[in-house]
Design brief:
With 118 residues, the chain is mainly beta. The protein contains one helix and seven strands, in the order E-E-E-E-E-H-E-E. The chain is 5% helix and 38% strand.
């Protein structure tokens, strides 16, 4: 995350290892995944600002254009990059399991339906 304090350790074989020693305060924002027309890279539009994402993070969450994305940004610092916390997929109206497609909405039970019996 932009602004985090890192400690660098160099191993005996010359590899660099970074350890986070002090995370910055973060804000959680919701945005929509878009494609930057100039660079053709995936970005998140949140609160009127475009944030760049690591492609690996979006791939991990199986993100697609138009998905709602929850991102983390530094609280007291301007940054054009954000970290992906989660991707919220739009719920499909049909299930890949045929038996579930026949169930009517009024037949579905919620855990809250049994609150009066407690």
């Amino acid at each position: 995350m932009c602004g985090d304090r890192l400690k660098l350790a160099i191993t005996h074989d010359g590899r660099f290892l970074y350890k986070q020693t002090g995370p910055v305060e973060r804000n959680r924002l919701k945005g929509v995944l878009i494609e930057d027309e100039e660079t053709n890279r995936l970005c998140v539009l949140a609160e009127g600002k475009i944030y760049h994402m690591l492609t690996a993070s979006l791939t991990f969450f199986h993100a697609e254009l138009g998905d709602e994305v929850v991102i983390l940004v530094p609280q007291n610092r301007e940054c054009s990059w954000a970290a992906v916390e989660n991707v919220i997929k739009e719920l499909s109206t049909t299930s890949p399991y045929p038996a579930l497609n026949t169930v009517e909405d009024h037949d579905l039970l919620s855990p809250l339906d049994d609150l009066d019996t407690l």
